[in-house]
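Notes taken during the Thursday session

The instructor put the following on the board and asked us to keep it in front of us for the whole hour. The protein is LCP family protein. We were told not to look anything up and to reason only from what is written here. First, the residues (389 in total):
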Amino acid sequence: MSLAIVGLTLGAGFVYGVSLLNFSTDAISKTFKKLDGEDKITPIDATEPLTILLMGVDTDQATRGVDWEGGRSDSMILVTVNPKTKETNMMSLTRDIMVEIASANGKSTGTVEKLNHSYSYGQAPMAIATIEKMMDIHIDRYIEINMDGLVELVNAVGGIEVNNTLGFPITISEQEPAYTAIVPTGKQLVNGDQALVYARMRYDDPEGDIGRQRRQREVITAIVKKLLQLDGFTQYKKILTAISNNMRTNIEINPATIPELLGYKDSIGKLNSYQVRGVDRMIDEVYYQLPTSQHLLEMQNILKKSIGLEEKKDLVTNVKVYEKQLGLLSPINVYNVYTKLLELEASPWAETLDPELGSATSTSTTVMPETQTRDSSTEPAIGKEIEGQ
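Then, after some discussion, the predicted structure tokens were revealed:
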């Protein structure tokens, strides 16, 4: 389920709220869970960049928040937080990308599946190992959120504002009768149930999972924006309660670690948003997304640059990329495939393409309280979304 979007608020909530409160952290201490085989965790150093994998996990309703076994991660977002550049980057990973699943120790299992199946096979350890291979980057911490967390959290902050630009009311009751909330068109102040539907719907979206992930990132920005405006003890207690029953993470949150977490406070205000996506293909009667080598390498280098690592010229990945999977190995075919990918469908980032350069120009979002102004900057980046427009 699309609940990794709640995870980013962990940092935001504590960075902007916990330091103002004087109460026990027992409510959230139970969220701490080391990965299997993770004997010792290196303490967080808030002067250095941090890479976090956010996963939204959907389990059976009867065991939700209690038993995480058998759940599936329908949403995966890589987040890099850099206190040196004072920026946070969110990169959505399309669930249907075709990858070779890695075992928890990082070795290949030889199994080729959709990306989100890595969680089903081995929960967080296998999902992390697979994505580290996919994006050629080390993941420092993970956060997984169960679906009830989104409803409770949005209600705790008093609702959030979203902008339904699809031209029709958003609902998922036909596919999932238990969810009856509706999000009308245009700008709306929505409650938790509506936010869940807004972040979950994909079947009626012309862009499917790509459109859904764009709405997830919109919800992230809206939640963080509300958190920056909160100043009441009661509201923060509600947020802690919402998080404590629906989250697992190997980020330690206690009086000793809170000062370090607060060191990231200036990095959370500016959010840059990206999307790893591919070409739709049916292979052996199974739907996959196949990214091109050039697109995937660019996304890898965006992550590396965001945490101060050297960019690479050659792709290292466990992804079954488009041109190799279909045998299109010549340089001219690789170029044509990449160009075709950029022209696929009418999506916001595709509409900003420079036809000569084959790149997209878009804006980043600075998340600030309502009384402050937005700061926008532009830079070329394939797959980067236009936020707040």
